[in-house]
TrEMBL record:
Pfam families: Catalase, Catalase-rel, DJ-1_PfpI. Heme binds at Y379. Residues 42-432 form the Catalase core domain. GO terms for cellular component: cytosol. Its EC number is 1.11.1.6. It comes from the Eukaryota. GO terms for biological process: hydrogen peroxide catabolic process; response to oxidative stress. Occurs in almost all aerobically respiring organisms and serves to protect cells from the toxic effects of hydrogen peroxide. CDD domains: GATase1_catalase. Belongs to the catalase family. This is Catalase. It catalyses: 2 H2O2 = O2 + 2 H2O.
Length: 735
């Protein structure tokens, strides 16, 4: 009788003991094998194969006869291949993932008894999958879209999933509308166009017809819709969950992740180009950072509201189209999420990972948020069609704690459970339920009274106030970007009804915005506001709030542009310092064969050539002097385009010696260049110096503006992410 439990417990004991972020990796090891091991090629049934290249056929010296169906090896190859695909996710099909760990540094025991949020000595293994929403599995990473941010915590009490987005609100309030919003956003039914974008009639027709979407489309049109990196996005659980503490008190809660590197975005022209030039940009970016040991980290925060305060707000706290403004409900940061390991194989890990909002652990519960209630049904359901009923047995999905119950059988079941009974209760009392003290799930005894009806409570009917709050809280640059994004999207709507009505909708947010968009896309020019603007602001809604983190160049890609005859001193100083700062130096030349320095003292094989790689793929460019090199670059149209484009995309540019003149000539800035220290000059994030100084050889470059060193100032410009002044002053037109 004890056999069942003992066997299972033994299986997982190894993984559960020790509680480091590596527990899940240890758990996966038993299902992981190495192609590199000295094993010979076999069929799936283990028989070694002597010739995997020729199908068994009738052949003679001078005649190729028919292939024989009797060949079991040939048939197996084709059969297996024919069935390699599973249905892609109906939304969030395109994504990438990584392993890591989660730790709380401040116990939240005042609001929950969930050890994952109270035990500060614990490290919980996690798997995180980032995604876009609308595109197919093979679509581009950098399209304008909401990004998924799904975290699976493998806790000792079972799996807990936060299935969130990089935007804190959602398009709809009620799950019953989910098929409509997704149908409207996905490619249109008659021609399956467009791929991975919201810039089409149906999406905007839906937005007009659902006033509740107004808040979210403003977020989607903001720079949040085109993140620079998955590592530079916030993550939000969006829905309202609940926490219960040891005293049995309940709080409403929202979950938030804020990246250590700050929140940063691409610029639109860059995002468009990257979609073609490097469709895997975000996927590679995450892999590269982890590979280089620059592990992405997020602070984990909670916003909590006492149960008794549920109705104290002018919005319904269960409405997923509303944020809880920070001035009313501050975020309390209590933990840290770190990603530190790439997957070994994409399909069994990233593709087969499956999240469920309904998966919570004791101490965490749901609310009556009508979107969440529907999600709790949908996720398990979709895994059934994607992966089958035994999807939780898959290595990536199984918990690291013991799993034992009487759910049995089904397609592809592979756990073998010993014992004579498969039901509860049973005469052996096998597999008894656990009390709350033994970590059994606590159902919070909530009193519910109401009338069964298809409607929502009163406060769910207000749809514009927070859209205005968002717009009011944006910086000028952010407002420009939202205006341009709306102008782009509506330009792709051919139906005048669609763009005409949307222009009118924008008057419910801001008349000026509506007029600027109307001017660009056509439609009747609005003359008065649809409703008064309340004028309130919430600074934490602006990305600029999350840009000023500690300046760093860690994980930033810096392209070093050279040709034969480059200055080896400036080159080495910059290359060494970028590497020392954990940035990624990438040498780019006219060709990928060896490039020789001035005086022939050194040479290097570039990582890429100007045509093969583009400025869109880096964060900054550096050009060392060297008369011959700079002369060659000046004659190379693609190299000049690199400089113009990087400038247009607001990126930091550094140049020394002869290259300083070249840069200024190409971008046309000389008259506004100011000296910031000695002969170090800076203007709009373009940093130049006549000759690189000995102090710049130091590997430990302090990142500071206005200091004597060239690299200090150049790195500061990189750490700022982009130079927005160029855009505000209209200098970024050459892209
Ligand atoms: Fe969803 C996937 C996030 C509303 C139904 N959703 C999915 C993923 C994320 C989200 C990040 C990808 C998970 C992964 O990486 O595998 N979804 C959200 C957020 C929502 C939301 C933040 C609003 C708060 N979703 C939502 C609703 C429904 C669904 C209202 C249905 C009623 N979502 C699904 C799904 C998916 C999914 C169809 C597709 C693949 C999957 O679940 O595993 O069930």
């Amino acid at each position: 009788m004890a056999g069942i439990m003992t066997d299972t417990i033994q299986k997982v004991q190894h993984a559960v003991m020790g509680s480091s972020g590596a527990d899940k990796i240890v758990d996966l090891e038993k299902d992981t094998k190495n192609v590199g091991d000295k094993v010979q090629l076999t069929t799936d049934y283990g028989v070694k194969q002597s010739n995997p290249d020729d199908w068994l056929s009738v052949v003679s010296k001078d005649q190729q006869g028919p292939a024989l169906l009797e060949d079991p090896f040939g048939r197996e190859r084709i059969h297996r291949f024919d069935h390699e695909r599973i249905p892609e996710r109906v939304v969030h099909a395109r994504g990438t993932g990584a392993f890591g760990k989660f730790k709380v540094y401040e116990s939240a025991e005042d609001v929950t008894f969930a050890p994952v949020l109270t035990d500060t000595s614990r490290e919980t293994p996690v798997f995180v999958r980032f995604s876009t929403v609308l595109g197919s599995r093979g679509s581009a990473d950098t399209v304008r879209d909401v990004r998924g941010f799904a975290v699976k915590f493998y806790t000792k009490e079972g799996n807990w999933d936060i299935v969130g987005n990089d935007i804190p609100v959602f398009f709809i309030q009620d799950a019953i509308k989910f098929p409509d919003v997704i149908h409207a956003g996905k490619p249109e039914p008659h021609n399956e166009v467009p791929q991975a974008q919201t810039a089409h009639n149906n999406f905007w027709d839906f937005q007009f017809n659902h006033t509740e979407s107004t808040h979210m489309f403003m977020w989607a049109m903001s720079d949040r819709g085109i993140p620079r990196s998955y590592r530079m996005m916030q993550g939000f659980g969006v829905n309202t969950f609940t926490l219960v503490n040891a005293k049995g008190e309940r709080h409403f809660v929202k979950f938030i992740f804020t990246p250590e590197l700050g929140v940063h975005s691409l610029v639109w022209d860059e995002a468009l180009k990257l979609a073609g030039q490097d469709p895997d940009f975000h996927r590679k970016d995450l892999g590269e950072a982890i590979e280089n040991g620059v592990f992405p980290k997020w602070k984990f925060g909670i916003q909590t509201i006492r149960e008794a305060d549920e109705h104290k707000f002018d919005f319904d706290i269960l409405d997923a189209t509303k944020i809880w403004p920070e001035d009313l409900v501050p975020t309390r940061y209590i933990g840290e999420l770190e990603l530190n390991r790439n997957v070994d194989e994409f399909f069994p890990q990233t593709e087969q990972v499956a999240f469920c909002t309904s998966h919570v652990v004791p101490g965490i519960g749901f609310s009556n948020d009508p979107l969440l209630q529907g999600r709790n049904f949908s996720y398990h359901d979709t895994q059934l069609s994607r992966l089958g009923v035994n999807w939780q047995e898959l290595p990536i999905n199984r918990p690291i704690c013991p799993v034992m119950n009487f759910n049995r059988d089904g397609a592809m079941r592979h756990t073998i459970t010993k014992g004579t009974v498969n039901y509860w209760p049973n005469r052996f009392e096998q597999c008894p339920p656990a009390s709350v003290k033994e970590s059994g799930y606590l159902e919070y005894a909530e009193k519910i009274a109401g009338i069964k009806a298809r409607s929502k409570s009163e406060k769910f009917r207000e749809h514009y106030s927070q859209a205005q709050l968002f717009w009011n809280s944006m910086s000028q640059v952010e407002r420009n970007h939202i205006t341009n994004a709306l102008a782009f999207e509506l330009d792709h709507c051919e139906d005048p009804v669609v763009y005409g009505r949307m222009v009118q909708r924008l008057t419910d947010i801001d008349l000026g915005l509506a007029q600027m968009v109307a001017d660009m896309v056509g439609g009747e020019m609005p003359t008065h506001a649809g409703r008064p603007n309340h004028g309130r602001k919430a600074p934490a809604l602006s990305q600029t709030e999350f840009m000023g983190m500690k300046p760093t160049i860690a994980s930033r890609r810096v392209a070093i542009l050279i040709a034969d005859g480059y200055d080896p001193v400036a080159f080495s100083a910059a290359y060494g310092a970028v590497s020392a700062g954990l940035g990624v130096p990438l040498v780019i030349g006219p060709k990928r064969s060896k490039i020789t320095s001035a005086g022939g003292t050194s040479s290097i094989q570039p990582h890429h050539h100007f045509e093969g790689f583009r400025s869109t793929m880096v964060d900054a460019i550096f050009i060392p002097g060297g008369e011959q090199s700079v002369r060659a670059l000046a004659k190379n149209g693609r190299a000049l385009h690199w400089i113009r484009e990087a400038f247009g995309h607001l990126k930091a540019i550094g140049a020394t010696g002869e290259a300083a003149d070249l840069v200024h000539k190409v971008i046309g800035l000389p008259e506004i260049t100011v000296s910031i220290s000695g002969d170090v000059h800076e203007s709009y994030g373009v940093v130049t110096i006549g000759t690189i100084k000995p102090e710049n050889f130091s590997e430990a470059v302090t990142i500071a503006k206005g200091s004597a060193g060239f690299l200090e100032n150049f790195f500061y410009a990189i750490a700022q992410h982009r130079n927005w002044d160029r855009e505000l002053d209209g200098l970024n037109t050459q892209v």
